[in-house]
Amino acid sequence: MHGKKDNAVEKKLGEGVVKDLTENIKVNPSRKSLPMLKSDKEMKRGDYDWATSNTGLSVMKWKDKRSVHPLSNFHDPTQTTEVTRKEKDGNEIKVSCPIGLSGYNANMNCVDKFDQLEGVYETDRKSRKWWHRIFWYFIDATMVNASIIHKETKLPKMTLKDFRREITRDLVAPALVASRGKKRSLNSHLQFNKKKPNVPKSVRLESSSHQPGRSTRRCAACSSKKQQICTDWMCSVRKVPLCLGKRKTCFQDYHAS
Based on the domain organization, do 100 and 123 belong to the same domain? Predict the structure, then answer.
């Protein structure tokens, strides 16, 4: 188990997990069934030896300061390249190196680089459902990988931030266009204003004295002998009882006529 040891947070968690998972598959040169390659005494810096299995697995041994034993089912063990090394006196020299090992050295930091890029604009969201975090991680991983591929093309270069913005615009644009077109077709004859209504002072104060007041008598507009309707409101100037409510417009109708 990883994560905590003796109630303390474990450091280098990723490294520990990888080491535990690969404990049983470490490349031991003396392991049974591995071919016998040149001994360290027979090799100088830059020398290498190799052998292949009938399944296409290559076993290599390269002498640097120490012997390195890589395995590969992808690289041709006969192909070599050159790497730069420093001597004790500070001078740099070129030494031969299997191409499989140079490829490993060139890309061994890609995981760290990927984690760095993935964490810059992380789309992580707290959730009670554990799989939500995995889902958002896959989205971020896809974004990072796509941006790396984009840099390898002849298209104009852009930062990861701008690349994510462009992807987001492309994903939401069709939905926005469709929704906006639908709203325009339904409400093309309407004009909405989210601000507070701006009524001129001359209009707002016109007949301002005719304000609703309290009353307990029958409405002068809608009440009759057959159906008597009392109201709680009346015109404060004319002292006329008038209905005022969601479904009653007696007050407005009385002053409009």
Answer: no
- For 7-59, the pLDDT digits (tens) are 666 666 677 777 787 776 667 777 777 888 889 889 998 898 999 888 888 88
Residue with tokens 């009353």: 215
Instruction: Indicate if 39 and 93 belong to the same structural domain.
Output: yes
- Which DSSP string do the residues of 45-83 spell out, in sequence order? TT-EEEEE-TTS-EEEEEESSSEE--EESSS-TT-EEEE
Tell me the residue type at 198: N
Residues sharing a CB contact under 8 Å with residue 58, sequence separation 6 or more, in sequence order: 50, 51, 52, 71, 72, 73, 75, 76, 77, 100
pTM: 0.39
Phi, psi torsion values for 215, nearest 5 degrees: -155, 160
**Among the listed residues 126, 128, 164, the one whose alpha carbon sits nearest the alpha carbon of residue 145:** 164
Task: Please state, in angstroms and rounded to a whole number, the distance separating the CA atoms of residues 68 and 45.
Answer: 11
Asked whether residue 21 falls in the same domain as residue 101, the answer is: yes
User: Pairing between strand 92-98 and 212-214?
Assistant: unpaired
How many whole angstroms separate alpha carbon 112 and alpha carbon 52?
A: 31
What's the CA gap between 32 and 183, in Å, rounded? 73
**3-state secondary structure at position 254:** helix
Residue 104 lies in a domain: yes
Residue 3 resides in a domain: no
Give 100-158 pLDDT, tens digit per residue.
888 777 777 677 778 888 888 888 777 888 888 888 889 899 999 999 899 888 888 88
Residues of the domain holding 147: 119-168
